[in-house]
Structure formats: structure tokens, C-alpha cells
Amino acid sequence: MKKLITSIYLIFSLSFLFAQAGGKNTYEFLNLPSGARTAALGGVNVSHYDNDLVFVLSNPALLRTDMNEKISLSYINYISDINFGYVSYARNFENIGMFALGLQYINYGDFIHANEYGEIYGNFSAAEYSFNISYANQLSPKIYYGGSLKTIYSDFYQYFSSGLALDAGLSYVDTAKLFSAGLVIKNAGFQIKPYTKGFHEPLPFDLQIGFTQKLRHAPFRFSLTAHNLTKWHLRYTSVFDNSYELNSNENLADTTFGQKLNKFMNGVGRVGDEFIRHFVIGVEIVPTDNFYLSIAYNYRRRTEMLIETSPKIVGLSFGAGLRLSKFNVSYGLASYHLAGMSHHFSLGVNLSEFYKNKNL
């Protein structure tokens, strides 16, 4: 049972898209990046438009007719023996719009069932699932809208829960200017059945907005995404970090001008620190339409998870992808902590290309 609690704690603490401080919401697995390309771009991106079905989980308005008859499969080797993934399929219905079906899951591994005396009764596992259906259509030549309905089931051995959540998004794409933007409301919903009767927990509600710009004469595509916009304070107070804290026992009227200035600058630093925690920046190098390399920086993840004596690449993520006529493969590496990285693998299959070849 101790292993289960530790694993769940890791998931909650490493989820970087929660609308409130970690541990105050349930179903935090909904915020994990279930695609290699999303993970490589820092874990959050609601504006990227590149005919990739993986991004639909981030913003349903990114579902396009170009994704018709496509399948996306993702597998993530997470921390310890935790694994999660996502599978989705998209289909266009003429004069109705685009639909996509998806299944998101996380498996926390196997655990030994024992009592307080060490007597072993057997093994058990813990997992969570979300089956979702997405819809998108075109509002104008440059504006798209979409929504996703998620049904959620959580199984923590003797504790079970179910819920409903809704994502709603907008996407703006200007192909002439190589610019796109996205806005999405995520995980608006409720628990149908709580783990404990009479105790309903909130879902990780969030508001996100992002922008993506490709340079016309250079192979670079930049993305800036703002998340957790429903909550300003993302920084937690730690007894080991008081860099931006004023001493409540000091009276500013009794200090020198230099001390007052120093405290003022500390306050400015705190505001700046809170502000930057809401943003993730990602860059893709795209020499051709069929290949990309990516790198991203998540300031909040780095600030909260690094070890001062050995920060290394915590908060950075990297990725690469290759697109062929029938397939596209992607890989993402996200560094959460000195002790753990996650490896993300995604495979996209274009079923319509098989149909074309069969008809020839």
C-alpha cells in the first residue's frame, strides 16, 4: 500500500497542468501529455497546427478534416514502473463535422497486498481510464471550434470513482502568415461517484491559451503557451526556500532605504516568478515538412523539481519526428527530476493511404 501511495503522490506532484496546487484535485492523469510531440514541447500546447492527431487531446478545435481516417497510438514509460498512453481514431462525416474517439489510460503497476504485520494476501494493481469523444467544425475560413466529452473511471484497489469532464476550444489559423493560436477550457466537470461517499473532489479545471509562429525564411517554429490561468498563485511556500519572503517580524518603517529597496525587489522578483510559472516555450526546427526536432523549457517544472546542487536539464524536454506517406513516428524526452525522465513514443497511421493503394 505504501508503494501505491508513493506512486500516486508522484503523479500528482509531477503533473504540471493542474489549475490549483497539487493534491487538491482528482483525476490529475488527465493533464499528462499523452503524445510524444506534446511532451517534447514542454507538455502544454493548444495552438500547434500540423495535421497531428496527438494535439486533439490538448485542444479539440485542432481536429481537422486532414486527419480523416487517421489513428494515433502513444505509449509513455513514466516514472518507476508507471506507464500511460493514448489511442485515438478520427473520422470525417460530410456536412456534419469531424469526430474522434480516444482512450487515455494510466497504469500505476502491481502492488503487494499485505497487512500491518507483513502478512501477504496477494497482489493488486491500480489504474485510471478516460474514454473521450471529440467533435470539431469550421466557424469561418480561419476559425475552428471543438469539444471533447470525457468519461472517467478510476480504480485504486478498494477505492473506485467515476466522473465526467468537458473540454471546449477555439483555434485560429492564418496559413498565409504561418500563425496559429488556440484557446481551451479543460476538464470542466464533476465526480459522479466519489472515492468516499459524500466527499466529492474537484477536477483539475484549467484555462489555457497559446500562440505558434513559424518563420518564413528560416526553419523554426516557436510556440508560447500560458496555462493555469484560473489561478495566479502557483508557487508553494517551502521551509527550504524563502527567497521571496519578507520577515514578518521586521517593520519596514524601522529599516534603511537600502533594506526597503531590497525587500521591494524581492517582492518584484516574487511577482515575476509567479508570472513566468504560467508559461511554457517550445521551439521546433523544421527543415522539411516531413521531419522536425524540438526543444522546450518549462520554468515551473524546473523551479519545483530541480536539486540546487545538480540542476542539470530538469525542466527541459526534447523530441524528434519523421513523417512518411502512411506513417509518422515521434519521440519525446521530458526531464522532470534528476532521478527521473519520461520517454514518450507516438505512432500515427494514415488508413486512407492504404485504401488508395488498394484501389490502384
Average of per-residue pLDDT values: 85
CATH class of the largest domain: Mainly Beta
Helix- and strand-based class?
alpha+beta
Summed up, the helix count is 5
Counting DSSP E segments of at least 2 residues, the number of strands comes to 14
Question: Which series of helices and strands comes N to C?
Answer: HHEEEEEEEEEHEEHEEEH
CATH architecture descriptor of the largest domain: Beta Barrel
What Rg is obtained from the alpha carbons, in whole angstroms? Answer: 22 Å
Strand % is over 45%
Widest β-sheet, arrangement of strands:
1-2-3-4-5-6-7-8-9-10-11-12-13-14
Domain module tally: 2
The CATH superfamily title of the largest domain: monomeric porin ompg
Report low-confidence residues grouped into runs of 5 or more: 1-21, 242-250
Summarize it.
It contains five helices and 14 strands.
Q: What does it look like?
A:
This protein has 360 residues and is α+β, with helices and mostly antiparallel strands. It has 2 domains: 2-232 and 277-359, Porin (Beta Barrel); 235-266, no CATH class. It is 15% helix and 46% strand. It contains 5 helices and 14 strands. It has helices spanning 2-14, 36-40, 257-276, 299-305, 351-359; strands at 70-77, 83-93, 97-114, 120-138, 143-156, 159-174, 179-193, 206-214, 220-226, 279-288, 291-298, 316-323, 327-337, 340-350. The protein has a 14-stranded antiparallel beta barrel. The longest helix has 20 residues, at 257-276.
